[in-house]
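User: Can you model how adenosine-5'-triphosphate sits in this protein?
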Amino acid sequence: MTAPRPILQLQGLVKHYGRLRVSDDVWLDVAPGETHALIGPNGAGKTTLIGQIAGEIPSDSGRILLDGADVTVERPHRRVHRGLARSFQITRLIGGFSALENVALCAQALEGSSFRFLAPASRDAGLNAAAIAALAETGLAERADIPAGRLSHGEKRQLELAMALVARPKLMVLDEPMAGLGKAETQAMIAVLRRLAGQAAILLVEHDMHAVFALADRISVLVEGRIIASGPPDAIRADAAVRAAYLGEEV
Amino acid sequence: MSTTLLLIQTLNGLQLGVLLFLIAAGLTLVFGVMDFINLAHGVQYMLGAYFLAAFAAATGSFALGLALTLAAALLCGVVLERLVLRHLYGRDHLDQVLATFGIILFLNEAVRALWGSAPLHVDIPEALSGAVRLMPGLLYPLYRLVLIGAGLGVALLLYVLVTHTRIGMRVRAGASDAAMVSALGVNVGRLFTLVFGFGAMLAGFAGALAAPILSVEPGMGDNILILAFVVVVIGGIGSVRGAFVAALLVGLVDTLGRSFSTSLMRLVMDSSAAAQAGPALASMLVYVLMALVLAVRPRGLFPASAG
Amino acid sequence: MSISARRSLLPLLLGAGFALVPVVTGGDVYTVNLAIRIMCLAIAAIGLDLILGYGRLVSFGHAAFFGAGAYAVGILSTHGFTSAPLLIGAAILAGAALALPIGAVSLRTRGVYFIMITLAFGQMLFFTATSLSAYGGDDGLSLPARATFLGTDPFGSPLSFHYVVLALLALVYLGGRAIVASRFGRVLRAGGEDERRVIAAGFPITAYRLVAFVIAGGIAGLAGGLYAEFTEFVSPAYLSWQRSGEFIVMVVLGGTGSLHGAVLGAAGVVLLEEWLAEFTEHWRLIFGPLLVLAALAGRDGLARLLGRGTR
Amino acid sequence: DELKIGLISTLSGPSAALGQHLRDGFLLAVKQRGGKLGGETAEVIVVDDELKPDVAVTKAKALVDRDKVDFVVGVVFSNVMNAVAKPLAESKTFLISANAGPSTLAGEGCSPYVFSASYQNDQNHEVLGKYAQDKGYKKVVLMAPNYQAGKDSLAGFKRHYKGEVAEEIYTQLGQLDFSAELARIAAAEPDAVFTFMPGGMGVNLVKQYRQAGLADTVPFLSAFTVDETTLPATQDAALGLYSGAAWAPNLDTPENKAFVAAFEKEYGYVPALYAAQAYDAALMIDAAVKSLGGKLDDKDAVRAALKKADFKSVRGAFSFNTNQFPIQDFYLVKVAKRPDGKFETEIAETVFKQYGDVYAAKCPMK
Amino acid sequence: MLELSDVTAGYGGNQVLFGVSLSVGAGEAVALMGRNGMGKSTTVKTVMGLLPASGGAISFAGRPILGLPPYRIANAGIGLVPEGRRVFPTLSVRENLIATARPAATGRDGRPKAPEWTLAAIYELLPRLAERQRHLGSQLSGGEQQMLAIGRALMTNPRLVILDEATEGLAPLIRTEIWACLERLKQAGLAILVIDKHADALARIADRHVILEKGRVAWSGDTAAFRADPGLKDRFLHV
Ligand SMILES: Nc1ncnc2c1ncn2[C@@H]1O[C@H](COP(=O)(O)OP(=O)(O)OP(=O)(O)O)[C@@H](O)[C@H]1O
Ligand SMILES: Nc1ncnc2c1ncn2[C@@H]1O[C@H](COP(=O)(O)OP(=O)(O)OP(=O)(O)O)[C@@H](O)[C@H]1O
Ligand SMILES: [Mg+2]
Ligand SMILES: [Mg+2]
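Assistant: Here's the modeled complex, given as structure tokens:
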């Protein structure tokens, strides 16, 4: 029996900022449908790694394979078309657009060329239906017409997720989706992500250990740019090095 | 082209650069630090020149006139900030452009209504007239040397002020998030007034220094404003160091380009065509420089590496 | 439904206003000429608003494309071409063709850097125009004759000129509205707010911006071509940075990101100048503070003042 | 009924001083005649062209269409002149230049509706060229801004000057600092410098020329660079510099003495040639309208009346060439300080007697 | 020490707070709780003068502060760790800390009333900041920025510190440290108003709890009462 080809493979990724080695020979893969959590202390290089995967931050060396294809030097939007979606650690939304339009924008990206100049986009039933479905999945359906800038912090988080979802990605890279969410919303978000687990692989960066252990099939621990441990949740929880570097007594 | 000529032109380029720096420094501070596009900076330069002309004539002393000019320029800056500009912090850049454009129109016209359209006259102070022999065959006007010196002095002062004082830090912090600075206990309003007044004073200082060598006339700040913006952008917005380097670069490129572009063009075309193409090229050179710099480094030479 | 109906009220009123100018004034040539001038500038301002108001790309070189259109008409006319579609087509093409390379380089930069690099290109073209000695250099160039169309003389009388320009203005306006509302426009608008987000959503934002920039250039070229026909004269002054600044003032004064605001702004600037200049030689003493007040009053400019309560 | 005259001048921006002289000169003449010209009450509508050709065109059209003026007078700059000439001629409105004299309107493009009460652009430059030639200068440096008028200026100079041109320097329009150029001039060690540097550029140049120590060693020949619009700013720095003109405040005719005195009394500053030319333009209209008895409908008659308008020019002998540009004397003038402390240009010698421009031959009008 | 009574506020026409009353006594730690969007941050902004209140009264140390500009409120002795960190991106870590620092208020004897926060003390509390002191604010990781925001507020040596989601994005270890630190601060006499989603951890340090529901105080009471009533959490904090 051979394992299915990983949807994402990082092979020896390196990134320096000056003398600071932020990603230091990172090897990691995410299997199709897997929820893979990446945890590690603040400043370990998680967000940087996501930037490298998404193509915003160029890598100094190493390779990134997305669904088998080498995308190391491919431009960010091309990777989106290959099935990559991401959320941002600090929410990035189009504040002047309604929640619906934010999601529709993302739906549009996947649906052929957007060099269409005449038909009004806001009346595009196909886009709107997809957007509403994604909003519903994250529990924001009722807030569809509110300008994104006026949503509360938690709602913005949910919207970010809807924007990633609507693209029906093969891999979602989520940078702290629970940050700023209350207990209740965290629970809701966990439920949403759990439902998604079958449809898309998820690379989850999160400091909420409750969420991580509730969701992850596998956990990798990044410390100072290096993966120091990788394995199923129980093994990670028990790992002394991980406890010392990151978990402490919390879990 | 002799070495002496090259040397003189280099000094001339330096002198233009220093003048540009004095204007660009205030601009880049207000611009980078307060995130405010102040088109009215050019008219503040003009006011400096007019104040000097008026005060020097009234007091009969250049030094006294200069002192009064600095005070008046500071005052003007503060008044302008209090009356208009402070209401535009944090607003869209375009609102700032519109408002300060309005101020340009107003002040240019006010100056014309007060002092007339004709250029005013300012003498070089007696003590600084005459030329200095820098080396055999190289005479250079003393006043311009003093101007270069003054500019370098101000550059140093500014650098220390902005990068090494707490005021400088607060000002930079206020630029990115004024509300937060305020919530941490700093009176941002007063801080910005100060910066603005200081920027206006620098521009006024530049205008005053330029008055004896350039024509003092309404609208004299408009073109120099554009050049100052070029400097700010080449240097990287908000960077005093960048403004300094870029000002000298622009000064040198412009001056040397004007002197030598025709001769250079002669190498590749016949002399009458060169006489046509050379000056056209020379006048574009500064802009070509900016376009090149930005094409390669989209955030200028010394980007203040923000977010 | 009612919102969009109300939103189109102001533009409809504007259109009707322009259409009625000749009727109301009994064809008074002076007023009609004034209206033509406003409409020509308004077309260019709409082009600018497209990229500035929606894409947040503040181009300080818009006059260069305006001037390119004007020179296209001027130069072709001196060589004996008089066909209006040809001349106007050439004007549009000239604006767009120049915008392509300039945009490609300029769009590498952002924000204020973009403002300045477009200014730089504008200045280069300005100096190029002043050194076009074959076409009058700094003195400019008079058009030997006005354009014709199928034996008619559309620009010959102020009246027909007026309606031709009005039709083109309406076309540009409606086209602009369609573009803004389209999928393309949505990407452009989103990019104006948060570029990283749009890239992460899967759009090569620079390509979209470039297309928008070229469209704006083409529209400015059209306006410039018409303006050349109107003044029967072309000069480097059409490309000056002051003119670019005026376009920005028009758009901002009228309210960015509404398209009809650009028309209002153009009318506001031209009419204010015209009226104030009759009172005093020092009319800028009044005009300047008015601009300041407009800026203080807020972003939506004239459009908001006039359309208060219609949203 | 009433006589309506549109006066187009540059009244804002850096060159507004020139426009102000022009306007004041014209208005003085009207005022002296009790608000009348040729016996008719004259309404003068002053408009500012802002030195923008397109603004000038719309304003010129407004003068014709809205104000229905009988004459348009003025225009300081050639590019503005070129822009307004065509629409005015098309509407059969007479344009009387009080300054700009572009070759386009003097030669093949001459028009029955365009008169010049000033000069053709090349002529003042030719004065200096002729003078340099007569004086036996062997080697000169020429300098002008890099635009059409600048190039025309140097071409005008070279029409009569046959010696060596060591360097031809074109500067940027609106340039402020000439240190680079002055260094080149000093290095070239010429017998004289000729320059055309109007407005604020000229002020800068003159100051810097003096500061560089060149004023005492290299003769400074110029046109439109040192005149009464810039002398208040340059003051002593301009003393002894030369210019060429068809007029100077100290020109010794009774009409001129009266004009200068009246002007200074009215406005408190020394008039420049723009004022004198505009004053003449007013006198010319005055004479023509008087001879027509106020009937201005017959355009041919008006034209004829203008052509042989009988008025006492402040420039002395003055007549029209076939292209409706003047034939007049030209002088070398030199900057001097008057006993009352004011500065003016004063006539140093006559360079051309009753001189017409070279483009007239190309003008098809007879 | 801090007293809000019947405060109303909102954004434009959109009212968010409908009469919030709460108080924080000297040396007391109060936890402000509530689901997302209930107005917790809005309350904080109103206290700091960053958002104008439309009604009610706020006083600090006995003096009314409503309507004062933010800097005067801060100078009265309130330190803020805002939601979303808001560190200064163009300043280095060190500059972020010292730019707005103030010395501790001194007692009659001229000595600080409370142990003073200095650069060294902050670096000791959050050693990561010392390692990164030359980095610009924008070059920090999310968690590092959060630490910096906390350090920056402490450097103003406040009498009351307000922490709005100050542990968001912090690694568990660091979070534990912050809690420990808050406890120490409290012992040193600092009053604390804290918003955080980790209710259990809050219960350990807070003396009292206040729960906001749609811009109104829905429940308030001491920690023992809060712990005693598990239904509270279900009603106001979970869906
Ligand atoms: N542009 C930059 N220049 C220099 N250093 C940087 C830059 N960006 C990030 N760093 C440094 O790289 C390290 C890794 O940052 P990163 O944001 O990837 O951390 P992280 O693992 O996401 O942390 P957190 O959990 O706190 O968000 C940090 O120490 C940060 O200071
Ligand atoms: N800048 C704003 N403009 C308009 N409405 C806003 C703004 N900020 C917040 N709101 C609205 O005010 C309400 C309260 O927001 P607030 O940020 O105070 O909530 P919170 O309790 O802090 O929630 P969270 O836990 O998500 O941070 C929300 O409904 C939100 O939509
Ligand atoms: Mg991170
Ligand atoms: Mg909050």
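A couple of observations from the model: Chains E and D do not touch (no CB pair under 8 Å). Chain E has a mean pLDDT of 87.
User: Helpful, thanks.
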